[in-house]
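Quick one: sequence plus flavin mononucleotide SMILES, need structure tokens.
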Amino acid sequence: MKIFGICASPRNNTTEYVLKNALGKLESHNFQTEIFTCMGKDIKPCMHCDYCLENKKCIIDDDMAVVYEGLQSADGIILATPIQSGGISSNLASIMDRTRALEAIDYNLLRGKIGMSIAVGGDRTGGQDFAHLKNITYFMIHGIIPVSGGPFGSNLGASFWSNDSIDDIKEDSYGMDSLDRTLHEFENFLNKYI
Ligand SMILES: Cc1cc2nc3c(=O)[nH]c(=O)nc-3n(C[C@H](O)[C@H](O)[C@H](O)COP(=O)(O)O)c2cc1C
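Reply:
Sure thing.
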């Protein structure tokens, strides 16, 4: 089974560290993984031109092409976002809006895939839950089944406190526990429903 992980930070740092950790664990359990990182990529915001509704594809020619392919070919999708202004990053918001072009082709294109959320904040309570809720809402809109890591800190997904530092996020054992619990459920769902 294939897992597509999106690192929605504009740089390669703490969110990428966590996502790569997650994908490495999945690979050790024989999942095939692919990572897309937003750093240096050209992903323009949706212009609401409605070209996709008529033509079944987005009029913008940029790096979103890789994301369209990754989302469609995956069995499981991981959205990993840094917290920006109390929620998801602007990169991820653009990706979500641009997925409208897939809905235009077929409303059921992503239906039945499994989704999990990773949120990395500079602060301990900087908006991780709001980011998870946005990711889960996106999953639901597209028929993707969202997983919870269960109670005790991972209700909505994996939540990290980075203190804006790779060294500090490595010390966030509570965050890593939330990742492991969410991955456990993610794998359970993949094995049960795919
Ligand atoms: C524009 C901007 C807004 C941010 N807003 C928040 C915030 O509201 N809450 C928070 O906890 N951290 C906030 N941060 C900090 C980042 O979430 C934090 O440094 C995170 O580890 C960055 O992930 P990265 O290292 O993968 O880029 C913000 C950072 C930026 C650049």
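The chain has a mean pLDDT of 98. The radius of gyration is 16 Å.
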